[in-house]
Amino acid sequence: SEIAWNDLINGLGGESSAGGPLKETGTVFWTTQSSGTSNSTGFSARPGGRRDTESFYYMGKSGYWWTSTTYTGWIHYMEIHSGSEAAGVVRSYNYNSGFSVRCLMK
Prior knowledge:
This protein is about 15% helix and about 30% strand. The protein is an alpha+beta fold. The protein has a three-stranded antiparallel β-sheet with strand order 3-4-5, with helices on one face. Strands 1-2 form a two-stranded antiparallel sheet. The two termini are about 15 Å apart.
Protein backbone atom coordinates (compact mmCIF):
# COMPACT_ATOMS: atom_id res chain seq x y z
CA SER A 1 0.00 0.00 0.00
CA GLU A 2 1.00 3.63 -0.23
CA ILE A 3 1.11 3.73 3.56
CA ALA A 4 3.48 0.74 3.78
CA TRP A 5 5.89 2.24 1.22
CA ASN A 6 5.79 5.62 2.97
CA ASP A 7 6.46 3.94 6.33
CA LEU A 8 9.51 2.24 4.80
CA ILE A 9 10.75 5.48 3.21
CA ASN A 10 10.21 7.50 6.40
CA GLY A 11 11.96 4.83 8.46
CA LEU A 12 15.01 5.26 6.21
CA GLY A 13 15.25 9.00 6.74
CA GLY A 14 12.67 10.31 4.27
CA GLU A 15 12.38 10.76 0.52
CA SER A 16 15.73 12.51 0.06
CA SER A 17 17.77 9.59 1.41
CA ALA A 18 15.71 6.38 1.35
CA GLY A 19 16.78 5.23 -2.12
CA GLY A 20 20.39 4.51 -1.15
CA PRO A 21 19.63 1.90 1.54
CA LEU A 22 17.16 0.20 -0.83
CA LYS A 23 19.26 0.05 -4.03
CA GLU A 24 21.49 -2.85 -5.01
CA THR A 25 25.13 -1.74 -5.07
CA GLY A 26 27.32 -1.75 -8.16
CA THR A 27 26.66 -1.03 -11.81
CA VAL A 28 25.72 -4.49 -13.07
CA PHE A 29 22.08 -3.37 -13.20
CA TRP A 30 22.20 0.37 -12.41
CA THR A 31 23.82 2.54 -15.11
CA THR A 32 25.31 4.84 -12.45
CA GLN A 33 25.96 4.45 -8.74
CA SER A 34 25.07 7.24 -6.32
CA SER A 35 27.36 7.88 -3.36
CA GLY A 36 24.70 6.95 -0.80
CA THR A 37 23.88 3.53 -2.25
CA SER A 38 24.44 0.85 0.38
CA ASN A 39 21.61 -1.73 0.16
CA SER A 40 21.78 -1.77 3.96
CA THR A 41 18.15 -2.95 4.04
CA GLY A 42 18.82 -6.00 1.86
CA PHE A 43 15.97 -4.93 -0.44
CA SER A 44 18.30 -5.01 -3.49
CA ALA A 45 16.19 -2.67 -5.63
CA ARG A 46 17.00 -3.03 -9.32
CA PRO A 47 16.15 -0.62 -12.13
CA GLY A 48 13.50 -2.53 -14.07
CA GLY A 49 12.24 0.63 -15.74
CA ARG A 50 8.61 0.84 -16.78
CA ARG A 51 6.39 -0.06 -19.71
CA ASP A 52 4.04 2.46 -21.30
CA THR A 53 1.98 1.82 -24.42
CA GLU A 54 4.07 -1.05 -25.80
CA SER A 55 7.47 0.58 -25.14
CA PHE A 56 9.95 0.28 -22.27
CA TYR A 57 11.57 3.28 -20.58
CA TYR A 58 14.37 3.91 -18.06
CA MET A 59 15.63 0.32 -17.85
CA GLY A 60 18.93 0.44 -15.96
CA LYS A 61 18.12 3.96 -14.75
CA SER A 62 14.97 3.79 -12.61
CA GLY A 63 12.94 1.32 -10.60
CA TYR A 64 9.18 1.52 -10.22
CA TRP A 65 7.03 -0.64 -7.92
CA TRP A 66 3.25 -0.83 -7.74
CA THR A 67 1.42 -0.14 -4.51
CA SER A 68 -2.02 -1.58 -3.79
CA THR A 69 -3.45 1.92 -3.31
CA THR A 70 -5.85 3.07 -6.03
CA TYR A 71 -7.76 6.24 -6.80
CA THR A 72 -10.52 6.44 -9.42
CA GLY A 73 -8.94 4.29 -12.13
CA TRP A 74 -5.37 5.21 -11.24
CA ILE A 75 -2.84 3.47 -9.03
CA HIS A 76 0.03 4.77 -6.90
CA TYR A 77 3.65 3.63 -7.24
CA MET A 78 7.07 3.98 -5.60
CA GLU A 79 10.15 5.05 -7.60
CA ILE A 80 13.94 5.13 -7.21
CA HIS A 81 16.36 6.65 -9.77
CA SER A 82 20.05 6.12 -10.54
CA GLY A 83 22.51 8.80 -9.49
CA SER A 84 20.29 9.79 -6.56
CA GLU A 85 19.56 8.64 -3.02
CA ALA A 86 15.93 9.76 -3.30
CA ALA A 87 12.87 7.51 -3.24
CA GLY A 88 9.22 8.41 -3.12
CA VAL A 89 5.64 7.34 -3.60
CA VAL A 90 3.99 9.02 -6.57
CA ARG A 91 0.26 9.18 -7.00
CA SER A 92 -1.79 8.33 -10.03
CA TYR A 93 -0.50 6.23 -12.86
CA ASN A 94 -2.49 4.32 -15.44
CA TYR A 95 -3.28 0.63 -14.81
CA ASN A 96 -2.10 -0.18 -18.34
CA SER A 97 1.51 0.61 -17.46
CA GLY A 98 4.02 -2.02 -16.38
CA PHE A 99 5.99 -1.69 -13.14
CA SER A 100 7.79 -4.15 -10.87
CA VAL A 101 6.09 -5.80 -7.91
CA ARG A 102 7.40 -6.38 -4.39
CA CYS A 103 6.87 -9.83 -2.90
CA LEU A 104 6.60 -10.19 0.87
CA MET A 105 7.38 -13.29 2.93
CA LYS A 106 5.33 -14.18 5.98
